[in-house]
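Researcher: Quick test of sequence recovery. Tokens follow.
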């Protein structure tokens, strides 16, 4: 079975690599541990741990605020992340993830938990104690879904470090830069000369933050080809969904853009 390093001719052993040198054609019995990530002090780990906390805190806040349908929708987006090649599957990677039934059980467990009573969830791994069938493999898949954006950025960084060309149109289309203080979002786009550049995105009905003093916005991406992508205002709980919209050039011809539209409340 070829590993990542062999497939791309890196000629390096595992101790020489910063990432897990996974086999490309089967799952590897390695898991993403949110508790271990939170214990690390480097910037990447702390940012990823914050994203996990913000996402599940949003679910708790939605439940406390009576927005149960939105909380359910967020949990239903936590599907099987096959691209990491991590987990227990034999043969073709399948991922563990959670189905609709377990998503409902996770919702019910959170709804009845101390997190909702106190308004604060301390760690994702607490859910392992609440629901039969949700253990470290599924906690790993849940975490992977939530921090997918961080993993994509890390993968791009490692590919650049090792001289591996990143050719995925999807990766370029769904890479965002977020100002967490104001909610302004830029999207990585391809230019006419085949280069890349950051392009500001339209966020409909984004509140004006006159003198931002702390980070309050978060982007969450989940699903194949980033099918479900949300912008969340953690102060108010307001959520935006990325959608396609048509705009017109000066000559009247139409073109398609991605915009952030308020999620139905």
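Model:
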């Amino acid at each position: 079975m070829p590993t990542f390093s062999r497939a791309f001719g890196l000629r390096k052993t595992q101790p020489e690599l910063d990432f897990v040198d996974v086999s490309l054609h089967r799952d590897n019995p390695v898991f993403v541990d949110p508790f271990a990530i939170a214990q690390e002090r480097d910037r990447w780990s702390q940012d990823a741990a914050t994203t996990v906390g913000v996402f599940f805190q949003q679910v708790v806040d939605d439940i406390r605020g009576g927005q149960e349908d939105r909380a359910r929708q967020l949990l239903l987006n936590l599907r099987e992340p096959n691209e990491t090649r991590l987990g227990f599957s034999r043969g073709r990677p399948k991922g563990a993830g959670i189905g609709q039934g377990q998503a409902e059980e996770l919702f019910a467990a959170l709804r009845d938990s101390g997190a909702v009573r106190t308004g604060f969830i301390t760690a994702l791994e607490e859910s392992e104690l609440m629901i039969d069938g949700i253990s470290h493999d599924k906690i790993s898949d849940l975490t992977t879904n939530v921090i997918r954006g961080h993993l994509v950025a890390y993968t791009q960084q490692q590919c650049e470090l090792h001289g591996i060309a990143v050719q995925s149109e999807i990766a370029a289309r769904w890479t965002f830069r977020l100002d967490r203080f104001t909610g302004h979002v830029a999207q990585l786009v391809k230019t006419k000369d085949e280069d890349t550049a950051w392009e500001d995105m339209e966020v409909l009905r984004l509140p004006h933050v006159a003198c931002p003093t702390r980070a309050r916005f978060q982007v969450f991406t989940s699903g194949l080809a980033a099918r479900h992508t949300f912008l969340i205002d953690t102060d108010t709980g307001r959520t935006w969904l990325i959608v396609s919209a048509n705009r017109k050039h000066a000559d009247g011809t139409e073109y398609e853009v991605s915009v952030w539209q308020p999620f139905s409340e």
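The chain has nine helices and eight strands.
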